[in-house]
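Translate structure to sequence.
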């Protein structure tokens, strides 16, 4: 079988990236080839006749997503080896850093060594995201490996790279959702109709931080989705919480989660465009959370995204009662930490306020960053103290 796997030639001068164990090989690093390939094909990468990597071919700028820095064929044994390492790490984390929840990221793409594969565990139910054709092509081997390692009651497979497809398919079981617990809060998860895998688990630690700071405060949660930050604020003793999202489904889900946990809470769910909503506020809130969806999906939209972060944060600062707290985030991978901080800096100038950075925020331990692949560090945030 090894002879049937296509082999691409890497320019010897481009070996440095592989030696640094970066998981992407860009098209310009490869010699021209007449081999006919389609997206997701398994390929070998060689330098001067020696195979130095194996992975998934892609016709775009990222030409190869490296899975192994050696010659390996796709097999059940290969995927078990890779997944087992990710599972072992989560077992370590569950005894301390993840002790307060039964919902966590089981596998985090390049962060765990398999580009494009994301797996979230919700009380033992697994939701898989295939972010490119290569992962999708190997779904039966990947699912077989997961079933041997964990025997999950549910294995739901989603394909976000297929833009026109909003739902996925069951590889095991047919459960559409469950209840999970996070730091004493109960939340419903719907992995069939919800965004991503059902919840945004990457904000778990940041939600808990909000709960420690919200006592007696009026809190505004913008882009609330399922209401995780709203629940955390109420848990911490917030006097009043307002949740805003443009999606009616998000407001309904947030309201249901609030009623389930705090039936007597002072909570208001508002379906509205966040930017428009903020324009009409008059410094009524002691604490504002800005957690928007990614404003940039690629490099071409990065400049517009930075300007959007600037406008959003300026509006948030103006709507905040001074002194007050602002918790602000970007999950756009192409907007790095420095760019985001500069956008927030510009926003403070626009809003004519003073701002102190109390804490830099990011993704939790179950969303590890590969030291050799910094693109896996996508979530960045700031906890700010805003004064006149």
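Result:
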């Amino acid at each position: 079988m090894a002879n049937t796997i296509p082999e691409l030639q890497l320019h010897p001068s481009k070996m440095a990236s592989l030696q640094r164990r970066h998981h992407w090989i860009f098209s310009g690093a490869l010699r021209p080839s007449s081999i006919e390939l389609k997206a997701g094909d398994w390929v070998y990468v060689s330098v001067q006749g020696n195979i130095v990597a194996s992975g998934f071919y892609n016709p775009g700028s990222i030409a190869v997503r490296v899975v192994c820095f050696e010659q390996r064929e796709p097999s059940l044994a290969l995927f078990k080896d890779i997944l087992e390492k990710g599972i072992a790490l989560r077992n370590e984390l569950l005894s301390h850093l993840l002790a307060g929840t039964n919902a966590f990221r089981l596998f985090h793409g390049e962060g765990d060594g398999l580009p494009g594969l994301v797996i979230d565990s919700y009380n033992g139910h697994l939701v898989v995201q295939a972010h490119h054709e290569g992962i999708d092509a190997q779904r039966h081997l990947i699912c077989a490996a997961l079933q041997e390692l964990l025997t999950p009651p549910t294995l739901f497979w989603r394909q976000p790279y297929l833009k026109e497809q909003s739902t996925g398919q069951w590889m095991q079981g047919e459960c559409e959702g469950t209840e999970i617990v996070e730091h004493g809060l109960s939340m419903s998860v719907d992995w069939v109709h919800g965004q991503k895998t059902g919840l945004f688990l990457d904000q778990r630690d940041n939600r808990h931080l909000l709960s420690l700071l919200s006592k007696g405060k009026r809190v505004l949660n913008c882009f609330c989705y399922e209401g995780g930050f709203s629940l955390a604020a109420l848990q911490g003793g917030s006097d009043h919480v307002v949740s805003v999202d443009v999606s009616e489904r998000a407001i309904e889900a947030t309201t249901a989660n609030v009623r389930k946990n705090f039936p007597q809470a002072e909570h208001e769910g508002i379906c509205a465009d966040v930017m428009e909503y903020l324009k009409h506020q008059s410094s009524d809130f002691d604490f504002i959370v800005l957690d928007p969806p990614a404003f940039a999906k690629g490099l071409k939209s990065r400049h517009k995204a930075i300007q959007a972060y600037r406008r959003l944060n300026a509006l948030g600062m103006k709507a905040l009662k001074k002194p007050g707290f602002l918790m602000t985030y970007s999950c756009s991978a192409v907007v790095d930490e420095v760019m985001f901080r500069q956008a927030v800096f510009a926003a403070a100038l626009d809003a004519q306020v003073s701002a102190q950075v109390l804490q830099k925020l990011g993704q939790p331990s179950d969303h590890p960053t590969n030291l050799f692949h910094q693109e896996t560090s996508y979530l960045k945030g700031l906890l700010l103290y805003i004064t006149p």
